[in-house]
Design goal:
Elements lengths: L5 E8 L5 H11 L17 H6 L6 E11 L2 E11 L7 H8 L4 E7 L6 H12 L3 E7 L8 H12 L7 E2 L11 H8 L12 E10 L3 E10 L2 E2 L3 E4 L5 E3 L2 E5 L3 E3 L2 E2 L4 E5 L13 E4 L17 E7 L5 H12 L6 E7 L3 E8 L2 H15 L3 E3 L6 E5 L4 E4 L13 E16 L3 H10 L3 E7 L4 E9 H5 L2 H8 L5 E11 L2 E8 L2 E2 L5 E4 H18 L7 E7 L2 E8 L15 H16 L1 E4 L2 E4 H7 L4
Parallel strand pairs: 1-3, 1-4, 4-5, 5-6
Antiparallel strand pairs: 2-3, 7-8, 7-16, 8-15, 9-14, 10-11, 10-16, 12-13, 12-15, 17-19, 17-20, 18-19, 21-22, 21-23, 23-25, 23-26, 24-25, 27-28, 27-29, 27-30, 30-31, 32-33
The structure holds guanosine-5'-diphosphate and magnesium ion (MG).
GO biological process, one term: positive regulation of translation
Catalytic activity: GTP + H2O = GDP + phosphate + H(+)
Enzyme class: hydrolase
Length: 602
């Protein structure tokens, strides 16, 4: 396939507008996967993706499609890259777009342009991609394609006559999609007679083959058996296997200019496979490709083994999983309450949740995660500045006086039906937001931009926004600068002892309320034990909230009337089972859920 017969495109959209379904239909249409293969969302391979109905990893599939172009029928090789829609994973989207010349911008025919439609449009637009608008779900009774066309025109200056109308559900209009891709999206621009330059798009670890890298051949060509080097590490490798994702790996022995495919090169760990790296023929000299901006970690949380003993097992599980998710940062840390563990940086809370779930499901780890925090910057009297990723590392009674602190902010895009404007403004000002823009997409929809502290949106903002707008709001954000802020450390004390894993950093004006809520939440989750437990929230030495859990002797056998031995044993086992999910801090047993609940207070 010479590069004029290659098309690389991606599908971008707001979550749930039908990207994955459309990708499935295109794979079926080209005979790449069988129709009725019994697996909806073929490209959503991970268990978390299937359970939550979201795409987490971008996936690539190569398809072949015959098309009559200039009267001769030609077979085209088309690489489709399905992308995640959730804001946490926009990093994956921008990476995928680097290998594409065009994108299908899918918009739900009833819902219209939403916050991530806007974000994704600009990602594609800034990468100079050809954008084909696809108005999907036209089978819905409330579909209004003309209204959506008008929105696309007014928001993005897209020509309404270029929009394709489809239903990925009924199949209507799908036959126009691939011809439009072939005719409107340019072939990859690389030079086939130049030295090899390959962009490393992604990597994962396979039990049998080792590290598998997804690559886009920008210039030149690659053959099996050749020696390649990494621009980032200088390491050299032999190409042991090379081929395409069809979508299963199909060895082809080579990849030509403009192709997207995989290589296996004897890398021992995915740490060697740096996403965005340039690979080239060993002993040739090339200018490295621009690569990607590194992932930005928005939230940090401690991960600790739930049953104390198996730190090594957790260590192993995290190592394995980070092989397939290089966007997590991991450093060892220790907590006096929880022992040895890890401080991990995530792209957002959903990313954190997904990582946690994958650790448990795919790697059998049992994990307690501590209250997440955003990265703050503190300045001390001696002029030194510290990045704080763990509130516990901030002294409660600093001898060195804190002279200034800064918190990260985001620029948020919110799209809502006009009647909710008032309540959204109230919510945003409660969350310390500053309005940057307020306009209308059409007569029914308002568009707002806010600058908000990251801390205020990381937890529960989206749920709150959804609930005050009857589910109609859509929301997206990108990171903005740090702003100075009046922050304090809030300690939680159990029986007078501060629990480092429960410390948080809050805005001074919110400390009172957050402290109150935290101790009330904890009281609900801590069972009565054989002694009284006091729960306190404090700023420095000043206690701002307090609750007590009174003592009670818990006797599971009290429920047993007769002397039924098996029943007795069952109950005892049940109690043991319950204990497993507890974490003993000092002399107090804290259930795992308590940690999870604390994170919902903001
Ligand atoms: P993604 O989040 O953009 O990948 O969206 P999905 O492909 O997962 O689709 C979200 C939901 O919309 C699923 O329940 C699909 O079955 C449904 N859906 C997708 N395309 C259509 C369509 O053309 N018509 C209708 N009625 N439903 C669709
Ligand atoms: Mg999807």
């Amino acid at each position: 396939y010479s590069s004029d017969k290659i098309r690389n495109f991606s599908i971008i959209a707001h979550v749930d507008h039908g990207k994955s379904t459309l990708a499935d239909r295109l794979l079926e249409l080209t005979g790449t996967i069988r129709k009725g293969h019994g697996q909806p969302q073929y490209l959503d391979k991970l268990q978390v993706e299937r359970e939550r109905g979201i795409t987490v990893k971008a996936q690539t599939a190569t398809m072949f499609h015959k098309h009559s172009f200039l009267r001769t029928e030609t077979e085209f090789l088309m690489n489709l890259i399905d992308t995640p829609g959730h804001v946490d994973f926009s990093y994956e989207v921008s990476r995928s777009l680097a290998a594409c010349q065009g994108a299908l911008l899918v918009v739900d025919a009833a819902q219209g342009v939403q916050a991530q439609t806007v974000a994704n449009f600009y990602l594609a637009f800034e990468s100079n991609l050809t954008i084909i608008p696809v108005i999907n779900k036209i089978d819905q009774p409330t579909a209004d394609p003309d209204r959506i066309k008008a929105q696309l025109k007014s928001m993005f200056d897209l020509d309404p006559s270029e929009a394709l109308l489809t239903s990925a559900k009924t199949g209507q209009g799908l036959e126009q999609v691939l011809p439009a891709v072939i005719e409107r999206i340019p072939p990859p621009p690389g030079k086939s007679n130049s030295l090899l330059r390959m962009l490393l798009l992604d990597s994962y670890y396979d039990e049998y083959k080792g590290v598998i890298c997804h690559v886009a051949v920008v210039d030149g060509a690659l053959q099996k058996g050749e020696k390649i080097s990494s621009a980032a590490t200088g390491q050299s490798y032999e190409v042991l296997d090379v081929g395409i994702m069809h979508p299963e790996l199909i060895p082809t022995g080579m990849l030509l200019t403009g192709q997207v495919g995989y290589i296996v090169s004897g890398m021992r760990s995915t740490k060697e496979a740096r996403v965005g790296d340039t690979l080239y023929h060993t002993r040739s000299t090339v200018e490295p490709l621009p690569g990607f901006k590194p992932a930005k970690h928005m939230v940090f949380s401690g991960l600790y083994p739930a049953d104390g003993s198996d730190f090594e097992a957790l260590n192993h599980a995290i190592e394995r999983l980070t092989c397939n998710d290089a966007s997590v940062s991991v450093t060892k840390e220790s907590s006096s309450a929880l022992g040895l563990g890890f401080r991990c940086g995530f792209l957002g809370l959903l990313h954190m949740d997904v990582f946690h779930q994958r650790l448990e499901q795919e790697h059998g780890a049992h994990v307690i995660s501590t209250v997440p925090t955003v990265p703050y910057i503190f300045e001390y009297a001696d002029g030194s500045k510290k990045h704080i990723h763990n509130p516990a590392t901030l002294p409660s009674n600093p001898k060195q006086r804190v002279t200034a602190c800064w918190e990260p902010t985001v620029t948020a895009t919110i799209i809502i039906p006009s009647e909710y404007v008032g309540s959204v403004i109230t919510l945003c000002s409660e969350r310390r937001g500053e309005q940057l823009e307020h306009s209308f997409i059409d007569s029914q929809r308002a568009f707002m931009k806010y600058r908000l502290p990251l801390r205020e949106i990381v937890v529960d903002f989206y749920n709150e926004l959804k609930s005050i707008t009857s589910g109609y709001a859509s929301f997206d954000y990108e990171d903005a600068d740090y702003q100075d802020s009046d922050l304090v450390k809030l300690d939680i004390l159990l029986n007078g002892q501060p629990v480092d894993a429960m410390a948080t950093i809050v805005h001074r004006l919110k400390a009172q309320r957050v402290g109150r809520e935290l101790v009330e939440k904890l009281k609900k989750y801590i069972d009565r034990q054989m002694f009284e437990i006091t729960i306190q929230a404090a700023i420095g030495s000043k206690v701002i909230a307090r609750e007590t859990v009174s003592a009670m002797r818990k006797n599971v056998l009290a429920k047993c009337y007769g002397g039924d031995v098996t029943r007795k044993r069952k109950l005892l086992e049940k109690q043991k089972e319950g204990k497993k999910r507890m974490k003993r801090i000092g002399s107090v047993d804290i259930p795992q859920e308590a940690f999870h609940e604390l994170l919902k207070v903001s």
